Amino acid sequence: MAETVSIDIGGLQQLQETLRILGTNLANMVMTATEEIAADTRGAITDIYPGQLSDQFDVTVGDEGGLASVTAMSADPYVLWYEYGTRPHAITPTAGKQALKFVAPWSGAEEFFTLVHQSERAHNGTIALKLAMHTSALERWTEAIYALLDDLELG
């Protein structure tokens, strides 16, 4: 599973070269905003995916081919199972073990089972992650462009 947002900074670099006003480095402003989008994305992942699942994501910032981008990606099977759900399946003790031990969330007591039939419903966190990433990108990159316009006294 991977989600990416990007903006073409090649055109912005051409604009910067054309303007050469106030020594403003628009590409740097956009890349700074892109780093902020990455931080926002990490926060959104923590909000959307519970516990240790949020640690299974890599969030990277790229600036190749004239595109500034943020990519959130996880190849961890547990993330995919959480995201898309699973069919009911048997969970049994591993070799040498006689029972499965769980801590009951309602009581905190340890419980033991020899067989568990489990399924996981689909959580569809990708939708919320896409929304968070695209909202952050729109806000942060727009702020960077408006900051340049303010510097040029055009905004």
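Second entry:
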Amino acid sequence: MAKYVTKQCPVCKKDFTRRVSRNQKHCSPKCQVEARRKKVTKQCPVCKKDFTRHAYLNQKTCSRKCAKTAIRERITKQCPECKEEFTRRPSGAARQKHCSRKCLYAAQRGKPGDRRKDSKGFWFWAPDGRDMWEHRYVMEKIKKRKLLSTEQVHHIDYDKYNNDPQNLFLFTSHSEHMKCHASFNRLVKRLLAGDGILLFNRVTGLYELGPRP
């Protein structure tokens, strides 16, 4: 069954009923034509002169000449990375902070020693000018080698910010890491019931339930 809604015509101020599916603003074609005939006075941002246009037109300048001038207009900004000045159009100047992609990527990578949190909640930094997660950097220092892309580091206490060496465990693959998480999920109900305490077995890489002290 079709649903109807009551609206008010912005021209004649009368209430009218139309289907919800129809995006109709006016009560009749007559009011629609009248609305299109309505004109408004604006000020040109280029020549500062007043001009009149139809209200439904999203025209900002008074002429093509002023429109071309507005397009050619540039705003001067300073790049926070290289400190060089650069120019951009007003439409994009608010969004663009850096002069080039090179400076943008350099700012995202950070400086050697910078430490920040990434979108996943891990500590992210560039200790040697090389971008990496802090928990992987700590594990590389423990193993005294670079980690493989397939190797994954697990936080034993599930605290992503705790990168203490005693809180990290290295898995050789993603599947082994997921088995570890699955072993924890299987013990949640028993932990809530108070059956024991949670222990992590560094030999098997799985969580176990131990007796209460």
